[in-house]
Amino acid sequence: MKSSKILFIILTFALLTGCGGSGGDGGTPTAALVSIAVTPANPSIPVGVTKQFTATGTYSDGTSHDITTQVIWSLSNTSVGSVNSTGLATGVAAGTSTIIATLGSISGSTILTVTPAILTSISVTPASPSVPAGTTQQFAASGVYSDGTSYDITTQVTWTSLPTSAATINSSGLATGVAAGTATITAASGSISGNTTLTVTSGGATGNNVLPITVNGSLCSSNSYLNKPCVSVTVCTPGTATCQTINDILLDTGSYGLRIFKQVLTNVSLTQVPSGSGSLAECVQFADGSADWGPVQTADVILGNEPAVRVSIQVIDSTFGTVPPECGIPDASPSAAGFNGILGVGLFAQDCGSACVNSASIGRYYTCSGTSCPGTRVPLANQVQNPVALLPLDNNGVIVQLPSIPPGGSRSVNGSLILGIGTQTNNVPSGVTAFPASQVGRFTTTFNGTLYSSFIDSGSNGLFFAPPSTSPIPTCQFLSDWFCPSSTLILSATNKGASGSPSGDVSFQIGNFETLFSSGNNVFPNIGGDFPGGFFDWGLPFHFGRNVFVGLEGKGSSLGTGPYWAY
Fold first, then answer.
1. Strands ordered across the beta sheet of 81-83
2. I need a surface site. Which of 17, 136, 465, 479 has the fewest CB within 10 A?
3. C-alpha pair distances (Å), 429 with each of 51, 327, 537
């Protein structure tokens, strides 16, 4: 019995000591609630981030208990944040608010400060691109913030490329391929970063007869429109070494000759081409309804690293003389036109040819004396000339090389303009078909039973044609000149040379312009619009993924004698 009684006493003591004390064990108190403490005290959270609060009750017997799930939670300023029934608060907008825990008549509080949203992740686009060594790739950084929003932070991050032996990158996210290999491209802001891989290939045309092309890239201006191919040219005062290299020159296989705005010719002096007792001027009108007006002047022009050629160019100047009424309202500045100039490397050596030699009423060339500018005839030598035709060797045409583009588009791409066809090892034709062009530069396209007069034009930023009435393509609600089918159309047409042969099918796609336009990309293989008049304009989208050959009139190569297109 003795041992049993001792055991009973020990057990009773253990039970008594286990029920009391001041520990916060979550039991149900019998004493009165005296106060509530809300913790953590005076915290700060960014917009979009949550914070768990705890309510601790102190009772009249000196005990304390966790009463987080028993109190009623509230905020004094609900525009700053929100709090649920378990004390989990979420920052909604920058500011301060009192967070309150209430049980009966007793309450406790603390101050919640909500700061602006913080950066939580960075994505780098395009994902895993590939460029040839010596060319560039523009990257973009998109930041995702704690409130769920995302923004373009390309110019706010720190860019790095590793290893730099493969590629370098500048502070604006423009990477340059150095040598074949791969580089990790990283965009960082504080401790947050994102990256992608850039593959640099050894491919890509090189040589003195190569001009880099950037489509909405580093050679283009900031006000560029979609699908704009840009090159740079060097213009010199005739007979001198005073030269100026000018970027943002639109590469145009649908026109002939060099045209540059007066505003950007800041470091050179050119020689005016005379016309009788006056000065020769020109109006050139384009299919989009725009026009360029200005004097014809002589310059020494350098393409790539080719020898300089002396050539008549148009200086675009809407204030020169008096603009003829038939010229409409010509472009007044580079910002109005969207480029600094145009390099026309199409099928012909001059921009008007024999028509302007024989007639003064073409509406093209004028002789200006003071404010009077009547029409005039112009010999071939004085007309604005395709500078490629004057090169000593690579003068029979050009090749436009541009890579394939995914259906959703790209931010920018790089390619090459190669001067000459079959004149050097880098411009030998292989696996292409030549389509002879007419004396006005046309061949034919048949699409869904309709015959079109067609041409290939890198200066047009879409595929432009009027669909047959039997096969309509919806146009956009807000941009009615462009096509907006509900889903991407996969189409086919047949091209034929001007003489009726050869014949070849070509596939193309038309996407929803408004959807693509809103994507944030700038370069698309599948945008097009309605172009009346029975013409089919194979614009820049046609060039992606192809080598397009432009054979100059009267010049021969293994593809034949120009004018011809080949691809």
1. 50-52, 88-91, 81-83
2. 17
3. 67, 40, 24
From first CA to last CA, the distance across the chain in angstroms is 112
Whether the Cβ atoms of residue 86 and residue 51 lie closer than 8 Å to each other:
no
User: Using CA atoms, how far apart are residues 456 and 160, in angstroms rounded to an integer?
Assistant: 40
pTM for the whole thing? 0.68
Question: Which of 14-18, 90-94, 532-536 is predicted with the least confidence, judged by mean pLDDT?
Answer: 14-18
DSSP state of 540: H
Q: How many CB atoms sit inside 10 A of residue 499's CB?
A: 12
d(CA 516, CA 538): 19
Closest CA to 314 of 350, 353, 276: 350
Contacts of residue 425, defined as CB under 8 A and 6 or more positions apart, other chains included, come to: none
pLDDT tops 60 at residue 4: no
Do residues 122 and 189 touch, judged by C-beta distance below 8 A? yes
Residue 409, phi-psi category: left (phi > 0), alpha (psi -120 to 50), beta (remainder): left
Beta strands in 9-84 (DSSP E): 33-39, 44-46, 50-52, 54-59, 64-66, 72-75, 81-83
Q: Which helix (H) or strand (E) holds 414?
A: strand 413-419
Query: Which residues fall within 8 angstroms of residue 224, CB to CB, at 6 or more apart?
Result: 216, 230, 248, 338, 339, 522
Query: What residue ranges in 116-255 does DSSP mark as E strands?
Result: 119-125, 130-132, 136-138, 140-145, 150-152, 158-162, 167-169, 174-177, 181-189, 192-201, 210-215, 229-236, 243-252
Give the pLDDT confidence of 91-142 residue by residue, as tens digits: 999 999 999 999 999 999 999 999 998 999 999 998 888 777 767 788 899 9
**By percentage, how much of the chain surpasses pLDDT 70?**
94
The two tokens of residue 290 are: 């725009």
Q: pLDDT tens digits for 391-417?
A: 999 999 999 999 888 899 999 999 999
Nearest to 445 by CA among 385, 499, 497: 497
Alpha-carbon distance of 198 to 125, in angstroms, equals 10
User: What is the rounded CA–CA span in Å between residue 262 and residue 259?
Assistant: 9
Q: Where are the alpha helices (DSSP H) in 408-559?
A: 513-517, 540-543
Residue 357 Cα distances to 15, 278, 369, angstroms: 119, 17, 20
- Domains of the chain and any CATH numbers: 25-115 (2.60.40.1080), 119-201 (2.60.40.1080), 210-390 (2.40.70.10), 397-566 (no CATH)
